[in-house]
Amino acid sequence: MRFDPPLMQGRLVRRYKRFLADIVTESGETITIHCPNTGAMHGCNEPDSPIWYSRSDNAKRKYPHTLEAVHTKFGIAGVNTSRANRLVEEALALDQIEPLRGYAKVSAEVRVPVEVVKATDEVRAGRFDFCLSGVTSGSDDLPCYLEVKSVTYALGSGLGVFPDAVSTRALRHLEALCACRAMGWRAVLLFCVQHSGITQVAPAAEIYPEYAQALARAQTQGVEILAYAVRLTADEFVLDQPLPVVV
What we know:
Mean pLDDT: 94
CATH architecture of the largest domain: 3-Layer(aba) Sandwich
Strand content: 35-45%
Helix content: 10-25%
Number of strands: 15
């Protein structure tokens, strides 16, 4: 994911109302920009932190600038959660995620299969980030449902955790992946680690113990749990190396 022009630099004043942030630009101007992150942004919202931001040419936007990354005490964190799906989609298109290679078709924002919803009282109708289908080799032509989660909460010593706040939506996605496995389909959860200081991922058991327990159950039921680091520069973000996940 290249940025042309490169991301601009500034300093964070404050993040507020979930979707807004005030920043100071390099020229000293204070402006309000869009903050595309619904999480708590632990460690990524300290006042006076250096930041990177982008500008949209869409004249209809009330806030044309977008907060993209914050320089934290543990490293650079990409706080625009919408980038995670784009990064994974680019890597899938280039067949760069080794455990997910060999699929001919990648569909985004696919509905949770009606069979899954009917088979369980716990899963509601909703969408997965991706469905991979049409294997190009071998005989196993079953669909692969893929959900992507952005990780930016660093605790230090290389450890990153998810989620950074209670998220019933994330829990429902995990339950839906388990239901897909019960139907005999492939189900994958991929942690997109947008933080240069994170080298391993774990569930945030202290923040959301139910999610940590559900993640362990999902793994035993055959849901594949992956994590990939993102290389972050002002010129580009790239999905890079696999990281270990401690469940």
